[in-house]
Design a protein that fits this description.
Length: 466
C-alpha cells in the first residue's frame, strides 16, 4: 500500500525538473510584454538618402527579449523596414538606419519610425518616434559614370531644382552607368555621397553593392543630351547622328595583330583638323599618340600629321590609339624597331598580361611584320623627327633598338653617329641600348620623347607626362 503513494511525488518531482529545465533554456514561461524605457532617432531633420542613428532601451524582467522591428513611414508610404536582434532582459540598442528616397517623395515631409519589441514568447509592445523631418536632396552637380569609366557632368536645370541636365555629350547610344554626387580624384565614385543606380528595375539610391542602371537612346548613333528628374526618378535623352568628322567604334572593324585584338579604321585624316570622339573613344583613359594627335578635350582631338590616308588602331585593353600608314618611309617617317619600345598607355603590364599572357607595356621587336613590331617617328620639320614611347619595359628595364628609314632595313641610324642630350639613358655605338647589367643604373620606365635631328646628328630625350 505504501507504494501507491510514491507515484504522485515522483510525478511532481519530474514536472518540477522539467519546468526547471525550461527555465534554464528558454527563461521563465510567464506571459509578459517588453517595455520601452526610451527610444530616439537623430538627427531630427535629415536628408532622404542619409542614415539616422536609432537608439532605444528596452526591458522585460519576466521574459528574454528577441527582436526589435522597425518601419519608417513618410506620408502613406513605408519607405524602409528591418529588424534588430535582441537578447537578455535588458537591451540597449544603437543602430544605423538608412532612410531611402522614393519616387515622388515630398520635401520637408513628416517621418515616423514605428517600433515593435518582441520577447521569446511572442509578447510585444510598440512605440513611435515622431517629430522627424525629411528633406529632399539638392546637388550642386551630379556625375554620370559609365561602367566603362566615362564621366559626364550634369548641372541643375534652371527653374527646376529637381532636374539635372547635360548637353553636347558624345556618349554611347546604350550604356550602363551610375549617377554620383561625389567622385574621388581618379574619377571613381565616392560612396560617401548619394549614388543612384538600379533598384528593382528603376533608378534609385544605392550603396557600394548596388547595380548600375541602363539608358538607351534609340534610333540614334550616340547620346547627345541627358536630363535626370530627381522627383520622378526618370532619365530622358536626346541623340545625335555621326558626322564626317566624328570617330566612333561603330565605324571600326576588328583585327587581330600580334595575338591582340584591335579595332581599326582606314580613312583620310587632315592636318590641323579636329575630330570628335564618340562613346568609348572619348574615354579619358585612352591615350592618343601625342606625336600625331593633340587632345583638345575628352571628346575631341586635333590631327598633327600630314594630310593623307591612315589606319587608326584602337586597343581596348591597352586603351591607346595610334596610326599606321602603308609603307611608311623617309622623309615622312623614321621607324624604330628592336626591343623595349611601346606606344604610350596608362594601363599597367599586369593588366595587359592578364588578358594577353606574356605581353607587356612595350611591344616592339626586330622586324616589320606588323604595326606592333615597330613605332613611328614623325617628321616635324625638315630633317627633324619626333617619337614618344614608353621605354624600357617595366618587367626587365632593358631596351635595344634602332631607327630605320623604311621597312626594308634601309639606312639604319647607329647610336655612335649621334650626340645624345637631355635624359642620358642610351648607350652603345650601334644599337640604341638602355642597359640593365649588374653594374648599370636602373633606368626609370616612363614615356620619353625622342627628337632626332638628322642634320645636326643630335638626339634630345625628354621624359614627358601624358
Amino acid at each position: 500500500m505504501k507504494k501507491t503513494y510514491i507515484y504522485p511525488f515522483i510525478l511532481a518531482a519530474v514536472i518540477i525538473t522539467m519546468i526547471s529545465s525550461c527555465d534554464d533554456e528558454y527563461g521563465p514561461r510567464k506571459e509578459s510584454s517588453p517595455v520601452f524605457v526610451s527610444a530616439a532617432a537623430v538627427p531630427a531633420t535629415f536628408t532622404f538618402g542619409d542614415t539616422l542613428a536609432l537608439s532605444a532601451e528596452i526591458i522585460d524582467p519576466a521574459t528574454r527579449l528577441s527582436n526589435l522591428f522597425y518601419e519608417v513611414v513618410s506620408g502613406e508610404n513605408v519607405i524602409a523596414r528591418g529588424s534588430i536582434p535582441l537578447s537578455g532582459d535588458t537591451a540597449n540598442v544603437s543602430s544605423n538606419v538608412f532612410i531611402p528616397m522614393i519616387k515622388n517623395q515630398g520635401d520637408n515631409a513628416a517621418v515616423t519610425i514605428n517600433l515593435i519589441a518582441q520577447n521569446v514568447l511572442k509578447g510585444t509592445s510598440s512605440h513611435k518616434i515622431e517629430g522627424l523631418t525629411g528633406k529632399r536632396p539638392t546637388y550642386s552637380k551630379l556625375y554620370l559614370v559609365t561602367d566603362n569609366g566615362m564621366v559626364a557632368l550634369l548641372n541643375p536645370l534652371a527653374g527646376d531644382k529637381n532636374k539635372y541636365s547635360s548637353s553636347n555629350l558624345t556618349l554611347d547610344a546604350s550604356m550602363c552607368f551610375k549617377l554620383a554626387e561625389k567622385l574621388h580624384a581618379d574619377n571613381t565614385i565616392d560612396y560617401s555621397g548619394h549614388v543612384y543606380g538600379n533598384v528593382g528595375g528603376r533608378p534609385g539610391l544605392i550603396n557600394e553593392t548596388g547595380e548600375s542602371t541602363f539608358l538607351l537612346t534609340p534610333n540614334d548613333d550616340y547620346t547627345k543630351g541627358i536630363i535626370f528628374d530627381n522627383l520622378s526618378f526618370t532619365f530622358t535623352s536626346t541623340g545625335g547622328s555621326l558626322g564626317a568628322d566624328d570617330l566612333a567604334l561603330s565605324s571600326f572593324g576588328s583585327e587581330d595583330i600580334d595575338n591582340e585584338s584591335f579595332r581599326t579604321l582606314t580613312r583620310t585624316l587632315e592636318n590641323g583638323k579636329s575630330y570628335s570622339l564618340i562613346g568609348i573613344l572619348g574615354d579619358r583613359m585612352n591615350l592618343y599618340n601625342p606625336d600625331f594627335f593633340e587632345r583638345l578635350s575628352d571628346n575631341q582631338v586635333k590631327f598633327l600629321g600630314k594630310t593623307g590616308e591612315y589606319t587608326l588602331y584602337y586597343n581596348p585593353v591597352r586603351k591607346n590609339v595610334f596610326v599606321g600608314t602603308d609603307n611608311p618611309a623617309y622623309p615622312d617617317y623614321l621607324l624604330a624597331c628592336g626591343y623595349g619600345l611601346g606606344y604610350p598607355t596608362r594601363v599597367t603590364t599586369a593588366e595587359i598580361s592578364a588578358v594577353y599572357p606574356g605581353h607587356t607595356r612595350t611591344h616592339t621587336s626586330w622586324g616589320f611584320g606588323n604595326v606592333m613590331n615597330y613605332v613611328l617617328l614623325r617628321q616635324i620639320s625638315t630633317g627633324i623627327y619626333q617619337g614618344t614611347f614608353y621605354t624600357p619595359g617595366d618587367h626587365d628595364h632593358y631596351a635595344g633598338f634602332k631607327p630605320f628609314e623604311n621597312t626594308g632595313w634601309a639606312n639604319e641610324k647607329k647610336a655612335g653617329d649621334f650626340t645624345f642630350t637631355g635624359e642620358q639613358i642610351i648607350t652603345g655605338d650601334n644599337d640604341w641600348t638602355i642597359p640593365n647589367g649588374e653594374n648599370d643604373p636602373v633606368v626609370e620606365s616612363a614615356n620619353y620623347r625622342f627628337t632626332v635631328n638628322l642634320t645636326t646628328k643630335t638626339v634630345h630625350i625628354q621624359k614627358v607626362t601624358l
